[in-house]
Amino acid sequence: MAEKHVSLADQAYETIRTNILNLTYPPGMQLTEARLTADLNMSRNPVRTAIKMLQSEGLIVTDYYKSMTVKEITDKDIREIYQLRELFEGSAFRLIFTLGRYEEYSYRIEEKLVRMCAAANDIFQWEIADTNMHMEIVSVFENDRINRIYENNLSELIRMGQNSVKNGMDIIQTNENLKKMVLLMRENKYEEAYAILKADHFTIGKETALG
């Protein structure tokens, strides 16, 4: 089977998007075509196409004077995202136990946790693994619309999560707490397991993201 050809525009998009998500290009940073073409060692046309794609995603914003910046993350954004997470994930976590699927999901979450532990020394990769763990929790709904809501907010979740770590959220401790949560799930201890998820990923996560 022939390899799928990846266009220069797609390559430019992936590189710029990754640089935004891993905070190489932090929120509020001003970007120019000249800067991006130099960084990527590409001509302007593929970079221009990539910029349009990222503008449509909302990761790059343009003001009245056509100045481009990486989208800021406001305190309002953080509060809204964490409210969304608590509503969906709180309901999903309860449903896992209501359906009697707590043992199954303990192993599914543990699989994602293994990746989080392996990425403990790389904040960006750990945050990607963490968002995958949260996607696993909401997968119990088997609801494509909820999945799309999460996917549409992943770029903000990943950037916010890195700020949480930089502002004091402890990756090692979080991983250890999740290991305890997994064991509690296997014992069908919903209240104790959810208390860990809520404390680490909604309360501490939000407070440290807000700085």
From TrEMBL:
Keywords associated with the record? DNA-binding, Transcription, Transcription regulation
Could you identify this protein by its name? GntR family transcriptional regulator
PROSITE patterns per record: HTH_GNTR
SMART domains named among the record's database cross-references: HTH_GNTR (SM00345)
Q: Where is the organism placed in the taxonomic lineage, from the top?
A: Bacteria, Bacillati, Bacillota, Clostridia, Lachnospirales
Q: What InterPro entries has UniProt attached to this entry?
A: GntR_C (IPR011711), Tscrpt_reg_HTH_GntR (IPR000524)
Keyword presence, Transcription regulation: yes
Q: List the Pfam families hit by this protein, alphabetically.
A: FCD, GntR
Q: Has keyword Glycoprotein?
A: no
Organism domain of life: Bacteria
Coiled coil ranges (UniProt) are: none
Q: Where is the HTH gntR-type domain?
A: 6-73
